[in-house]
Amino acid sequence: MCGIVGYTGSDPAVPVLLDGLERLEYRGYDSAGVAVVSPDKDLQIQKCKGRLNVLRRRLESQPPLEGTVGIGHTRWATHGEPNDVNSHPHVSQNGRIAVVHNGIIENYAEIKEFLQHKGVHFRSDTDSEVVAQLLEYCFADAVDPLDAVYAVLERLEGAYALGILCADRPDMLIAARKDAPLLLGYGDGESFIASDATAIIAHTRDVAYMADGEVAVLTRAGIQVFDEYRRPVEKEHHLIQWDVAAAEKGGYAHFMFKEIMEQPEALRQTISPRLRDGVLCFEELSLPEEKLRAFDRIYLVACGSSYHVGMVGKYNLERFLRLPVEVCLASEFRYSAPLVDQRSLVIVISQSGETLDSMAALREARRRGGYILSIVNVVGSSIARESDDVLYTWAGPEIAVATTKAYSTQLVLLTMFGLWMADKLGRADPADYAAVTAELALLPGKLETVLAATDLYQYLGSQYFNRDCIFYIGRNLDYALGLEGSLKLKEISYIHSESYAAGELKHGTISLIEPGTLVVALATYGPLFDKAVSNIVEVKSRGAQVVAVTTESRLAQMEKIADHTIPIPDTHPALQPNLGVVPLQLFAYYVALQRGCDIDKPKNLAKSVTVE
Ligand code: G6P
Asked: Which residues 6+ apart lie within 8 Å of 16 measured at CB?
């Protein structure tokens, strides 16, 4: 979704802004722009539809924009098509105020109509322009720019992260936040705002996360923050732990490939602090034991791939805990009057920690009395901060839109938590506990074995990249895994794909199987292997070509049936999806590569979805 970066210091602002925007590209966007204020109080803007290199070319073809204070933006269109005019920054009618905005101003039509009656002419179709125009209107009565900003914020409904420049204050940048991510960066003689830390990590690791209702005034001398009542706020500083290389490709062709390859290390980071001598420990949790014992159901709430983690989690957690577990799409949950109460544990799963639907679902669950535990990758993100307890995945920054290492780490963390909770409740089978914990320690190494077979995945990609439609089938955990495999393929290769519970095929879907249809069959879940074989035979006998993913112990059997087999090491069934997902990620990757797709930035998709 939209990305914001802002700078005030002693260096020329434009290169800092462009570098920051480039690092935010992964969030997804369709246009970009920058604005700077020159020392002689001249506000200059350049913005256009398309990728950042289009903006760079425009900037190079004109005299440089002078100024050491500026704001930049990458826009993911919601209100108004992607074009030059609708791109940010938006400028007020008199050309003295520029604004970048992330989020949606829900009452924009009403404000627009009010201002139009006052004679204001709007240039764009966006909701965001009303902020710039309303600021100009409120500035007329204001002595201090902050008076105008507070007067505007009082009238805005919806979500916003804002960066504001005033031509008359060439030393100052103002930021405000409500329900959309924005952080502050503290440098030496320079200050920053950004949608996330990747944009500014090359300049500073010292950050503070803005809270809802806060307004910040940035100058090169420092940052002052005020709450919604304009009282000064002392911000807690955080030191970003990862370095700039973690957010760069490091010689790989794509972030997605790099992040797939980082999975063994990411899993180690997730597992090792919570597994000591075969014992699971979650010291970071503050969840009281009486509360833990009182839960009578669990909700797993998420979007996209994080929802698919929940699908796997349902099978594992119900098996470990013998408690009902419901998996919910956050966008549905929030409007479904969920039956959450004080005895409900609500686990919100989110890589970014900023997904708006997941955030709204969290608030709905809290309103109904649920205890909120979140599984999040981005430290300090909104979901993490609003939860009663948070488990960080420690996967490091994930840049490719299609998630891989974040999915894997969420998956293993949820399984570990479920088993830990079962043990606390005295419901864990000791043999199962010992087997899972033993396998957890081996999991990163086994994953390395799966990653070593890239030639096989590349070969399969080259054989099947030109298909119009690919099916995924599986049972139980393999069904949940197929959902993620199918989504990966759709996201980055644009091939139509569906995933089905294999036992359900004969109730309709089998009519779609024709001679030559490609079916990716997942048969890694040992207890139902024979059933999976029957389903493969069913599609084979209707002419399907089958690529089967199975465990090494069952490979010989599968080789007799499938056209191609992908072996993965055996592990405990609860952890098998962690190994099974990797061939699916790499198959999708190589198919997309053959088709010449923009793998890291698929069309229409965004990494962090901060609108409804
Ligand atoms: C977007 C991303 C997906 C992600 C989903 C949920 O759609 O493209 O990869 O799974 O959002 O994001 P979250 O950050 O909440 O896990």
From this structure: 5, 7, 9, 70, 203
Backbone angles phi, psi at 533, to 5 degrees: -60, -45
Which residues in the chain come in under a pLDDT of 50?
none
* Nearest atom in ligand 1 to 355's CA: 15
Residue 20 CA to ligand 1 center (angstroms) comes to 22
305 lines ligand 1 (CB under 6 A): yes
Question: Which residue's entry shows tokens 């799409």?
Answer: 329
pLDDT at 225 (0 to 100): 98
Q: Which atom of ligand 1 is nearest to the CA of 406?
A: 16
What does the pLDDT read at residue 251?
83
Tell how far the Cα of 401 is from the centroid of ligand 1, in angstroms. Answer: 8
Q: Which atom of ligand 1 is nearest to the CA of 410?
A: 16
Beta-bridged to residue 91, according to DSSP, are 98
Tens digits of per-residue pLDDT, 484-500? 999 999 999 999 999 99
Ordered structural domains, the chain, with CATH: 3-246 (3.60.20.10), 249-448 (3.40.50.10490), 454-594 (3.40.50.10490)
Long-range interactions of 56-62: CB distance < 8 A, separation 24+: 56/18, 59/14, 59/18, 59/34
Q: Whose CA is nearest to atom 5 of ligand 1?
A: 304
The two three-digit tokens of residue 318, written as one number: 């119900």
Residue bearing the CA closest to ligand 1, atom 4:
304
Nearest CA to ligand 1 atom 8: 607
Q: For the whole model, what pTM was predicted?
A: 0.84
**Are the beta carbons of 383 and 350 closer than 8 angstroms?**
yes
Catalytically annotated residues: 2, 607
Ligand 1, closest atom to CA 606?
8
Asked if 418 and 320 touch (Cβ cutoff 8 Å), the reply is: yes
Task: Say how many Å lie between the CA of residue 575 and the centre of ligand 1.
Answer: 22
Distance between CA atoms of residues 582 and 408, nearest Å: 9
Q: Confirm if 194 and 19 have CB atoms less than 8 A apart.
A: no
Cβ(359) – ligand 1 distance below 6 Å: no
Does residue 403 have its Cβ closer than 6 Å to ligand 1?
yes
**Cβ–ligand 1 contact at 410 (below 6 Å):** no
Tokens of 485: 């495999």
Return d(Cα 270, Cα 273) in angstroms, integer. 7
What are 396-408's pLDDT values in tens digits? 999 999 999 999 9
Q: Which of 27, 259, 306 to mutate to test the pocket of ligand 1 (most atoms within 8 A of CB)?
A: 306
**Angle at the Cα of 203 (from 199 to 205), degrees rounded to 5?**
85
540/513 Cα distance (integer angstroms): 9
pLDDT at 603: 85
Question: The tokens of 425 are what?
Answer: 């409740």
Distance CA 558, CA 561 (A): 5
**Strand 469-474's sheet: what is its strand order?**
496-501, 469-474, 518-523, 545-551, 564-568
Q: Whose CA is nearest to atom 3 of ligand 1?
A: 304
DSSP letter at 158 equals B
CA 90 to chain centre: 26
Task: Give the pLDDT of residue 245.
Answer: 74
14 lines ligand 1 (CB under 6 A): no
How far is the CA of 201 from the CAs of 18, 194, 197, in angstroms?
A: 14, 10, 6
